[in-house]
Specification:
Blueprint (H helix, E strand, L loop, with lengths): L2 H15 L8 H8 L7 H10 L4 H7 L7 H5 L20 E8 L9 E2 L4 E8 H4 L8 E4 L16 E5 L19 E5 L2 E10 L2 E5 L9 E4 L4 E11 L24
Antiparallel strand pairs: 1-3, 2-4, 4-5, 5-10, 6-7, 6-10, 7-8, 8-9
Length: 256
């Protein structure tokens, strides 16, 4: 379109809206094209309408990426408890995201979710953008894994930082201060507090857990994938396996 045509169309829009701020003169548009001026909200809207372009596209021209909004908001913590998805968390819609996995995924066992996804569902973009999919792994704590019960319930989803594979030692004042690690075993995965002694990786359960301390040969039988940095879990109706169904003490301890 010529500059005059843009001016004509924006003038028509300004008349419909009853606001002259929507008008884009040909001289003003030339200044915009030269990169010496940033449009106000009314003229920005006119540009979007006249050129049939989404506002997100035009914002990107001026160096503003709306896709970064949720990530940038995370820098400033919301001080009050609130519902995710209320008027302050609205976004442009949903995107496909894994909500179901292949049939060989057994909910009873602890799993690493990598490559298990098969079916994708619609999930709010605001939530997905806060997942660090490039720098984090995600795991699933099996319904029969009571290693950290009641701090982390079976059936929880875990965010894992794969850069933290060194076991930290120290004096922990609270349970959640002590680092929790996600471990790969020969025949599966595990999650819990860890100690390293005499070449053995010791998987330490919560003091109230029915599961025993387990010992593995470090690197040969067990290797730390990363530190658990986030947890999403149900506290009602999670389908937990009854503790009475758990194997007896000593289950999972390698025989020497």
């Amino acid at each position: 379109m010529s500059l005059r045509e843009v001016e004509r169309r924006s003038q028509q829009l300004a008349q419909v809206k009853g606001n002259p701020d929507y008008l884009i003169s040909h001289s003003w548009l030339r200044i915009i094209e030269n990169g010496t001026y940033v449009p106000g909200i009314h003229k920005f809207y006119s540009l979007s309408v006249v050129y049939h372009r989404r506002c997100e596209e035009l914002l990107a021209i001026f160096g503003v990426n709306l896709a970064d909004a949720a990530k940038d908001q995370a820098m400033f913590k919301w001080p009050a408890t609130h519902l995710v998805g209320d008027s302050g968390d609205t976004d442009e819609g949903t995107i496909p995201f894994p909500v179901r996995v292949r049939q060989e995924f057994h909910v009873e066992g602890t799993q690493l979710l990598t490559r298990l996804v098969q079916v994708w569902g619609e999930v709010p973009i605001t939530l997905i953008r806060q997942l660090d999919l490039r720098r984090s792994l995600y795991g699933y704590l099996g319904l029969r894994d009571y290693s950290l019960f009641p701090v982390i319930l079976p059936g929880s989803f875990l965010q894992i930082d794969p850069t933290e594979t060194k076991i930290k030692t120290g004096v922990w004042r609270q349970e959640l201060e002590r680092p929790i690690y996600f471990i790969e075993l020969r025949d599966g995965y595990a999650c819990g507090w860890c100690e390293l002694k005499d070449g053995q990786l010791i998987l330490v359960p919560h003091i109230t857990s029915p599961q025993p301390i387990r010992r593995f040969s470090h690197l040969d039988e067990a290797e730390i994938i990363g530190r658990v940095t986030g947890v999403a879990m149900r506290i009602v109706g999670g389908g937990l396996s009854p503790m009475s169904e758990l194997p007896p003490k000593g289950w999972g301890t390698p025989q020497k």
